[in-house]
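Moderator note: this is an archived Q&A kept for reference. The question asked for a predicted structure of one protein chain; the sequence and the answer are reproduced below.
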Amino acid sequence: MSEDFDIASGNYDATFTFSNIGKAQRQKVYKSINPILNQNRKLSILELNCGTGEDAIRFARLGHEVLATDISEGMIKVAKAKTNSKNLSFKIQDINSIDENSFDTQFDFIFSNFGGLNCLSKNQLESFFKKSTYLLKPSGKMTLIIMPKNCLWERLYFSLKGNFKNAKRRQTNKSVIANVEGFAVKTWYYNPEDIKILTSTFYNIKKIKPIGLTIPPSYLENSFLSKRPILSILKGLDSVITGSFWAKYADHFLIELQKK
């Protein structure tokens, strides 16, 4: 899998990070985590599945001490080429090999954006949540952006194309083969309730929000939906419809957890 992401790293920024849809969804994430980041104190932050480093760079520019990790050497290489910030470091790290001895310090905040954790099976995800408690300081927080099972956009898009199999592809507890830059990636989908169950022993739920309920998925970037004024209207709606009820129907959802 890491080799596939190595190859995908060359086009990832162009097709998602700097796309209109990608930027719109990322802005929604930032709005939700700003209360954590803007506390007038420097945080120690661990980012998991950092991709090409866009979020880690932003956190570092805000003055935080950031360690950003990813399984893909290619993604880390692209990320390192973007910055030489002294308070930001990158590390090649398989999330499944993380334990209490993986890092030299504990963190105030753990962050994973845009479905990185969807590459983990239920057992792997449960194991990660247990191990992550050793990585956080007392009362530390973790914010995860995860792809749910009931994305309305996906159901509508594929149904209109007559592809009813793909319209329901997320609605399973089994792995699904997702297309990432032309590569087949094993993917599991989780609703907020699934994450609540997996984390209940270790974390309290602080916040659940939809990310991309009216903003469409990134594979619609080349459609009229990513152009003004349509995208501006969709962004406006997305900023209004923020209730946790809608989280499982969005392209992604945000869940904020606090260590017990």
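Archived answer notes: The chain has a mean pLDDT of 94.
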